[in-house]
Hints:
The protein has 138 residues and is an alpha/beta fold. The protein contains three helices and five strands.
Amino acid sequence: MRRFSQRSHLVTVSEINITPLLDLAFVLLIIFVITTPLLEQSISLKLPRGVGRPDEHIDPKNVRTVEISNTGVYALDRQRMSLGALLNRLDADSHANPNLIVYIRADKESPFDYTAQLLGGCQRYGITRYSIRTEPNK
């Protein structure tokens, strides 16, 4: 019989096992691919065409964007909320920042009533600086 040398069971491995690392990378990739579309909470809108002039340079921290869908769903900075909550948030923001400008992005197929309610609420709270956004000219 042949005798083998006595080795301990604890043998050091000088190679890195890359399989668990690749498994983790693929799982994270799949998670990011699935969750990335869910991060976009904006409302899908079709803006009307406009003939206005290009925007001046405006500081982005002075701008709040309100979106109005054709079904009457309101969103402030991509967060959906009711008209009352939206106006309360705009009121608080206008007191904190007197240079506040409200960008209004309304769907071209939405009734004007939704936009009129927003404009009336803004005037009630003393917010007079707003811009109705349109699709740029081609």
